[in-house]
């Protein structure tokens, strides 16, 4: 059923290709509510309004673009526009652009959501999917579902000390009302997220598209290591309590513990020394840990093991170390019935498990949810090397339209 792609996705992505480029890191840095992400939100709203969709931004900062008057049992598709620092062009925006292009495609086929007995269709953009600014991944979908306490979310602070509530208010949403939105959630009949694959699965399978099987459970923790800040030149080596030395040992133990645990993945991608001077022994080091495993109990055991080794390293260096859990996302399966429907509507599409987290994973326990992955020829993501061939990007619009037409 997939018609010749109308090259809308590549055209749409071309419109935002210069938004949030990061000259220093390469790729894109589009933290939530940054100028870049706000520009992308405006781009999406304008594109949706040009298509006659009714657009609103809710108190959680989620943008909804409606096609059709009915709100009950709606079909919703979308993704996110925020990025990791130095991220790729497709992680998030591909799903948003494909949703816009799929609306064009449906209309070209004479399919009008919300008319002729068809359900309404909503396109959504979720804020802070990457958790790059406020530390909690999928903050928008966690707020929608109530998976995060509203007050905790309001008081999350970014590196400059802005709270999520302050930035929400500064961008036109009243933080007094953010939080679980049971009413909006109840209106969603099914949610579909199309996303660039963030690995090599589809390259190896030789397919442009896959239906998601599951999402790997994952979590984020923060180590805070405290030592004795001091002068780099006047402090003898024997007199030091240097938290950077403990941090270095934690990074190595993360690799060792995870490499020894089948199917585990663990990463330290961010370390923040205080004060961070070349000629200064740090007084404190904050270090963030990302651990993933199909079995949530094993994830916890891996973290525990790393924590034990961190405590020994800290004691040996005369430092102290504390560990705080920042967010947990249990391993998520998708609605089997919807998954079967997606495979029926996309004949030959393989099933692919995702090592990456997504808003669809947060929604999955609350409503029938499915995901589609589009081939990434480099298999690299969260990096400027993330890629999607134009032909696959445009094909995605037709494939998503096939799915939406079949479900509407
Ligand atoms: O971190 C993740 O897995 C996702 O890309 N936010
Ligand atoms: Mn993503
Ligand atoms: Mn991502
Ligand atoms: Mn000095």
Automatic annotation (TrEMBL):
Belongs to the peptidase M20 family. Binds 2 Zn(2+) ions per subunit. One of its GO terms (molecular function) is metal ion binding. Allantoate binds at residues 220, 279, 292. Its EC number is 3.5.1.87. The keyword Metal-binding applies. Keywords: Hydrolase, Metal-binding, Zinc. Zn(2+) 1 binds at residues 80, 91, 195. PANTHER family: ALLANTOATE AMIDOHYDROLASE (PTHR32494:SF5), ALLANTOATE DEIMINASE-RELATED (PTHR32494). Zn(2+) 2 binds at residues 91, 130, 382. Pfam families: Peptidase_M20. Its cofactor is Zn(2+). This is N-carbamoyl-L-amino-acid hydrolase. It comes from Psychromicrobium silvestre.
């Amino acid at each position: 059923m997939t018609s010749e792609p109308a090259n809308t996705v590549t055209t749409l992505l071309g419109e935002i290709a210069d938004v949030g480029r990061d000259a220093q890191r390469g790729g894109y840095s589009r933290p939530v509510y940054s100028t870049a992400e706000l520009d992308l939100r405006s781009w999406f709203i304008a594109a949706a309004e040009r298509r006659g969709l009714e657009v609103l931004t809710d108190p959680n900062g989620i943008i909804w673009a409606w096609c059709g008057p009915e709100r009950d049992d709606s079909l919703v598709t979308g993704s996110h526009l925020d990025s990791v620092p130095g991220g790729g062009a497709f992680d998030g925006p591909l799903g948003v652009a494909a949703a816009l292009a799929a609306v064009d495609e449906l209309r070209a086929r004479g399919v009008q959501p919300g008319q002729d007995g068809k359900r309404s269709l909503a396109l959504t953009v979720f804020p802070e999917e990457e958790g790059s600014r406020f530390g909690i991944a999928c903050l928008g979908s966690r707020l929608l579902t109530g998976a995060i306490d509203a007050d905790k979310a309001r008081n999350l602070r970014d590196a400059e000390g802005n709270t999520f509530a302050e930035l929400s208010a500064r961008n036109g949403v009243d933080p007094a009302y953010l939080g679980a939105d049971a009413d909006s959630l109840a209106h969603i009949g099914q949610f579909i997220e199309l996303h660039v694959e963030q690995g090599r699965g589809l390259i190896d399978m030789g397919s442009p598209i896959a239906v998601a099987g599951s999402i790997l459970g994952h979590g984020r923790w923060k180590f805070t290591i405290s030592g004795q800040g001091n002068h780099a030149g006047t402090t003898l080596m024997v007199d030091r309590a240097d938290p950077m030395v403990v941090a270095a040992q934690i990074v190595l133990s993360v690799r060792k513990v995870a490499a020894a645990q089948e199917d585990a993945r663990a990463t330290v991608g961010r370390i923040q020394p205080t004060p961070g001077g070349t000629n200064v022994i740090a007084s404190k080091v904050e270090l963030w840990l990302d651990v993933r495993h199909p079995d949530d109990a094993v994830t916890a055991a891996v973290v525990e093991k790393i924590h034990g080794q961190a405590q020994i390293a800290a004691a040996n260096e005369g430092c102290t170390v504390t560990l705080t859990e920042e967010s947990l996302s249990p391993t998520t399966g998708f609605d089997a019935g919807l998954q079967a429907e997606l495979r029926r509507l996309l004949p030959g599409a393989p099933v692919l498990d995702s090592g990456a987290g997504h808003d669809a994973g947060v929604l999955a326990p609350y409503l029938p949810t499915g995901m589609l992955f589009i081939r990434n020829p480099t298999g690299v993501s969260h990096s400027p090397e993330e890629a999607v061939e134009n032909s696959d990007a445009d094909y995605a619009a037709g494939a998503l339209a096939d799915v939406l037409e079949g479900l509407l």
